[in-house]
């Protein structure tokens, strides 16, 4: 009887690795989070408008010292803030700039105030900057991380809403209308 149990135990132990290996054969995405914004990036590149990012903003984001050519999708909120998703079209300066900027006028001066973030198609936050009348300055990424997360979600939902097979209800927090031909400063 012991001989029978030991053979059965040996057979079961031999089957366990095969069963574990079979479980791993199922196709699963290797790094699904790595391309969090890739579909938004493709959408903006195919349907966005050609614009450029001001040299000062490009420089502080580490994207060069010249105007940065981008494809852009922007939406105007009810309070006048432009929510923009800009994808660099310069092959030497890859990057995605997401921004929430409001254009202000003060007598003869026009400027923007708000926040801009440098990210990539994975959605990893690389740089946060604040923009105001005096220019742009680098902020700790943790200072506006929650807003950055909200902005990513906003653009993911906007992209999904353009896909006719996907139905989403509009966000109750943000009322937006498309904006065309605006430069991010």
Write the layout of secondary structure elements.
Elements: H1 2-24, H2 38-47, E1 49-53, H3 55-60, E2 68-77, E3 81-88, E4 96-106, E5 109-119, E6 127-132, E7 135-139, H4 145-161, E8 176-179
Antiparallel strand pairs: 1-2, 2-3, 2-8, 3-4, 4-5, 5-6, 6-7
Architecture overview:
With 185 residues, the protein is an alpha+beta fold. The chain is 30% helix and 32% strand. The chain contains 4 helices and 8 strands, in the order ααβαββββββαβ. The chain has helices spanning 2-24, 38-47, 55-60, 145-161, and strands spanning 49-53, 68-77, 81-88, 96-106, 109-119, 127-132, 135-139, 176-179. Strands 1, 2, 3, 4, 5, 6, 7 and 8 form an 8-stranded antiparallel beta sheet that branches. A hairpin with a 2-residue loop joins strand 6 (127-132) and strand 7 (135-139). The longest helix has 23 residues, at 2-24. It is globular and about 45 Å long. The protein starts with a helix and ends in a 6-residue tail after the last strand.
């Amino acid at each position: 009887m012991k001989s029978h149990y030991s053979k059965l135990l040996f057979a079961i132990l031999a089957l366990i690795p095969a069963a574990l290996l079979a479980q791993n054969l199922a196709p699963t995405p290797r790094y699904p989070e790595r391309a969090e914004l890739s579909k938004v990036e493709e959408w903006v590149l195919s349907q966005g408008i050609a614009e450029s990012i001001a040299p000062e903003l490009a420089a502080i984001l580490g994207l060069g010292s010249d105007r940065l050519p981008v494809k852009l999708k922007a939406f105007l909120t009810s309070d006048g803030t432009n929510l923009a998703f800009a994808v660099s079209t310069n092959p030497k300066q890859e990057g995605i700039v997401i921004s929430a900027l409001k254009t202000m006028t003060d007598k003869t001066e026009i400027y923007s105030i708000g926040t801009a973030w440098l990210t990539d198609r994975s959605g990893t936050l690389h740089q946060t900057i604040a923009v105001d009348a005096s220019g742009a300055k680098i902020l700790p990424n943790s200072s506006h991380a929650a807003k950055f997360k909200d902005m990513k979600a906003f653009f993911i939902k906007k992209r999904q809403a353009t896909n006719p097979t996907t139905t989403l209800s509009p966000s109750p927090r943000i009322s937006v209308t498309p904006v065309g031909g605006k430069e991010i400063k």
